[in-house]
Amino acid sequence: MPNTKSAARRMRNSARKQARNNVVRTQLKTAVKKFRAAVATKQDNSPAALRAAISTLDKAVKKGVIKRGTADRKKSRLAIALNKATAAKK
Fold it and tell me: According to the CATH classification, is domain 5-89 in 1.10.287.600?
């Protein structure tokens, strides 16, 4: 338990931020998972799923949940996965 008023406030703020971060991370994982599923099943909506995943990554960066470099790395790897899948289709 916190000993001071400010420590109690920090605890409440941390809990609130943690809840928000968990929501954003869950949305992020879901978007990436949907994209990977679309690529694995060779669906035509893979580019749309990639756009959605990239958008979710950018929003997570904007909210400070993940770092810019992490998002850029993930976006790059997702784009590479899409390119490999489309090259294999041809």
Answer: no
